[in-house]
Amino acid sequence: MPPGTGSFAAFARKKVAAAETAALEPFKTIADNSASLALEAIGSEFTDALLDGQFFQSPVPRDSIPSFSLVFVQSRDGNTEADNPSTLGGGETDKHVIYEGLSRVAADAVLAGAKSIGAGILSVWHPALAALRGALGKPRHPFQIVMTARGELPIEEGLLFNVSEIPVIILSSGRPAARLAEQCRSRPWITVIGTSEPSDLRRGAERLRIEHGIQRISAIGGRSAATALIDAGLVSDLYLTTSAIRAGVPDTPLYTGTRPPLRELVVRKESPDGVVFEHFVLSLP
Ligand SMILES: NC(=O)c1ccc[n+]([C@@H]2O[C@H](COP(=O)([O-])OP(=O)(O)OC[C@H]3O[C@@H](n4cnc5c(N)ncnc54)[C@H](OP(=O)(O)O)[C@@H]3O)[C@@H](O)[C@H]2O)c1
User: Fold this and answer.
1) Around Cβ 146, how many Cβ atoms within 10 Å?
2) To test ligand 1's pocket by mutation, which of 104, 116, 183, 203 has the most ligand atoms within 8 angstroms of CB?
3) 246 CB under 6 A from ligand 1?
4) Which of 24, 125, 178, 182 yields a CA-CA distance of 20 to 30 A from 269?
5) Ligand 1: distance of its center to the CA of 220 in Å?
6) Total-model pTM
7) Would you say 56 and 239 are in contact if contact means Cβ atoms under 8 Å apart?
8) Residue 75 has pLDDT above 80, yes or no
């Protein structure tokens, strides 16, 4: 039997408990260029205290494309791949306040490559962050978007595909789109958007906004999905946490392409244990 609402309730209880009991170390601001950039600020008393100031995001573009941000943790030596990204050493504040918090608190959708969807639902869990999401007028959980080319997704057994109250969109390049749509016919909360070829990502993004009203997307990677989004010129913000330890699979930087984006620093913050959080605004070279 596929997992459903009961499994989701248990999963959600665990996530909330982990967030509530985490020891959250505050960051200190080292550099702040936010005043010179046209960005939106979000935060609450709770998050401002932990981040030593507000969190920023680019405004949603005026055209028909949603705003995309990327949120990544890398080891001190720049690696992003690990079976469990927590072992990269980003720490609890990064995980509960930035990754599962501010980077997605205003997002209509969270997006992941097929290899990074994990075993759960991608959402906001700390009660203070969930309250902030509510205050911003967002539904409790964002849309779940999965990118795939091969179309081999765990539709039957994956929790993400089996919680009827949380909508899922599969962005599928290539031929598997029609097969996936057929496979998901008994799950009306799942929509398949075919993007023909990977280069049609922009068209897929446009359909997310026009057909589903998705204006802001928080993409969690991994690096091949991130590179495709960057190369398509879709990503405006990068939230990058760099740990103080050497870890991860060697030679796995977050960008794998040939035209690394230009980065403009918005803020840089550091925790007492040497974890650095940086927000960059990205543009194509
Ligand atoms: N450090 C971090 O913050 C972080 C974040 C996320 C993940 N990770 C780690 O990163 C690793 C996975 O990264 P990854 O780069 O191997 O995989 P990934 O980006 O998560 O997923 C790759 C898959 O996404 C699909 N995909 C990518 N580009 C696409 C495009 N343009 N159109 C359609 N589908 C596309 C393909 O799916 P199909 O194979 O189905 O065709 C591809 O195989 C894991 O170790 C994970 O734990 C780290």
Assistant:
1) 25
2) 116
3) no
4) 125
5) 9
6) 0.97
7) no
8) yes
Residue pLDDT, tens place only, 134-183 = 999 999 999 999 999 999 999 999 999 999 999 999 999 778 999 999 99
**Full set of structural domains in the chain with CATH:** 5-283 (3.40.430.10)
Sheet with 276-283: list strands edge to edge.
28-32, 262-270, 276-283, 235-242, 67-74, 216-219, 109-113, 143-148, 168-172, 190-194
Query: How many Å apart are CA 166 and CA 84, to the nearest integer?
Result: 24
Out of 147, 199, 229, 241, mutate this one to test ligand 1's pocket (max ligand atoms within 8 Å of CB): namely 147
- Is residue 256 within 8 A of residue 100, CB to CB? The reply is no
pLDDT in tens, 174-216: 789 999 999 999 999 999 999 876 558 999 999 999 999 999 9
Evaluated on CA atoms 133, 139, 140, 141, the torsion sign reads negative
Structure tokens at 36: 């010179």
